[in-house]
Structure formats: C-alpha cells, structure tokens
Amino acid sequence: MYKLLVFTTVFCLTYFLMPKEAMSQIGDYNTMIGVTGGTNVGATVKKFVSDQGAVDLLVYNRWKGWVAALLYEHHMDIREIRDLEWYVGGGFHYGMWKEGKGLPPWTATSDQDYNVYGLDAIVGLEYNLNRSNFYFGGYWKPAINFQDFAGFWEDDAAFTLRYSF
Predict the structure, then answer these.
(1) Looking at residue 99, which CATH number applies to its domain?
(2) What is the pTM of this model?
(3) Domain range holding 15?
C-alpha cells in the first residue's frame, strides 16, 4: 500500500508541475508549492485548471501517521481587500499508520496497521504577500472516514505558505 501512495504522489506532482494556460484571479500564477502547519505538518501542491478552479494535493503527517488528500477548490475574490480571496471545495483522502509507529486517537494500542479513507470538504483564505510570489493562507478541512475509524474529523486546520511559479 505504501508503494501505491508513493506512486500516486509522484504522479500527481508530475502532473501538477506540467505547464497549463490557467491563471488565478489574484495573479498570473498557475502552480503553487508550499508547506502546511497546524493540526498537521506537511506539504502542498496546488495547480489551477481554470480561472477559478484549482486541484490541491496535501500530504501531511498527523498522529505519527501519513495522510494524503486530493481536493478541488473554487476560488473567489474578496473585493473589499485587495489580493485576498477565499475558496471552498472538496475531495478525498487516504491515511495510514504503521504498527508500533503511530497511535491514532481512536485506538487504545498500536499493535496493528490502521488505514482510513474518506471524503473531505475544505474552506480557506489565501492572501498574496506584497504582490510577490508568496501566498499566506489558512484552511479548515473537515472529513468523513469510511474505514477503520468510520466517523467525522472536524479538527483538521492549518496555515499555509506557498510559492507560485
């Protein structure tokens, strides 16, 4: 399963870095890479596929396990504040915790592997820092899991710092 996750991540990163003619409303960028930090710590790659639509890959560490989320986000301007926009969207995630290495909060022991998959929603803000290639943002990403821990994760939130090119 780990090899499948690595292959999917490499494939998505390659696809996201391929040039497209898309542009965002707040700048002339179409691909962004960056880091996330909050309830999770990880990396993000965002690729605009239309003027307002973007595909975002999040790969992050949480509870000593790994989660990957692939999301579609629709971006909209906040007219009152220049270079600020908000977005809303959704997608899916897959997470894994290996025996003895991580202890997800829904378990009492780490004596087996745990895997989760499910659907995500996302809402966030993104601000262009001083009309540069750097963007600061934050998001809230609730999720519903369908395996091992079939339930609702409402506490996934993080800040992002991204570089556009």
Answers:
(1) 2.40.160.20
(2) 0.78
(3) 2-164
